[in-house]
Amino acid sequence: APLFVFFAFRSGKGQYHFTLSEPIRVEAPSRAERTEAIRRSAQRYADILEETLRANPLQWYHFEPFLDSKQK
Questions:
Q1: Is 28 within 8 Å of 34 (Cβ atoms)?
Q2: Hey, how many other C-beta atoms are within 10 angstroms of the C-beta on 56?
Q3: Which of 39, 42, 53, 64 shows the smallest number of beta carbons within 10 Å?
């Protein structure tokens, strides 16, 4: 199944702007090429995320802790 990256940005009071990426297809012609196909797809996701966050640096939130609580 293709992967889509979706973003919602606040563009004003009660207004939002939504974006949806082109599909990311994880396709490998053979089992031997599966790891490389996954790597390419993960890199494409990271590129989309980086591009979007650079364009909207104040409109993001990470839902999981960045650091282990023991590291505080």
A1: yes
A2: 14
A3: 64
